[in-house]
Specification:
The protein has 188 residues and is an alpha+beta fold. A four-stranded antiparallel beta sheet has the order 1-8-3-6. It has a domain of 116 residues: Jelly Rolls (Sandwich). Helix 1 packs across helix 2, helix 4 packs across helix 5 and helix 8 packs across helix 9. This is Crp/Fnr family transcriptional regulator. Pfam families: cNMP_binding (PF00027). It comes from Gramella jeungdoensis.
């Protein structure tokens, strides 16, 4: 149950006793396909590590169109981070888009580990930094790219995305229509 998390923590050069302590705070949660974990306007109380499956963070605009902004696959963390941090209602949804097996930690326990285990604090800082970099690359990098370049960038930087999620979800992430995404994929 903890194998993926242990491998992740070992890759960060954390000693075995601290790994056991960290893992003891995580509980297994199995989800159904398309299960909402954090609803819009709900305050997020948990952080998730993906053992198996995929999480998606998305919003829905006034016209009812979804806008995917993040996907977490196996071996990655995911949550509705702004709500998790400031304990205000989420302005987004967190969804398991596949039948998933997650390791879940409460906000209280997560911050206990951040404050008591320096290596876990470093992981949190890394998650925040990588999230910022990815958001910046997606926002500013995509501004100057045409549709084909966006798809090529995604294949290079996040190949699981186009293999594992629906065209509709991937297209919303890339800022294009599903039909445009299909045409661009056929050109590659």
């Amino acid at each position: 149950m903890y194998k993926s998390l242990v491998l992740f923590l070992e890759s960060k050069n954390i000693e075995e006793t601290k790994i056991k302590t960290i893992c003891s705070f995580f509980k297994l949660k199995k989800t159904n396909r398309n299960q909402i974990l954090v609803d819009y306007n709900e305050v997020c109380q948990h952080y998730y590590f993906v053992n198996k499956g995929c999480l998606r963070i998305f919003t829905i605009n006034k016209e009812g169109l979804e806008n995917s902004r993040y996907f977490a696959f196996e071996g990655n963390f995911g949550t509705a981070l702004p709500s998790f941090i400031d304990q205000k209602p989420a302005l987004e949804y967190l969804q398991a888009i596949e039948k998933s097996e997650l390791l879940v930690i409460t906000r209280h326990d997560f911050y206990f580990l951040v404050h008591s285990i320096p290596e876990f604090s470093a992981i949190y800082r890394e998650i925040l930094e990588l999230g910022f970099i990815n958001a910046q690359q997606r926002i500013y990098g995509f501004q100057g790219l045409d549709a084909l370049e966006k798809v090529s960038w995604t294949i290079k930087n996040n190949p699981k995305l186009l293999l594992r999620v629906s065209n509709k979800m991937a297209a919303s992430y890339l800022g294009m229509s599903p039909s445009t995404l299909s045409r661009m994929k056929s050109k590659l």
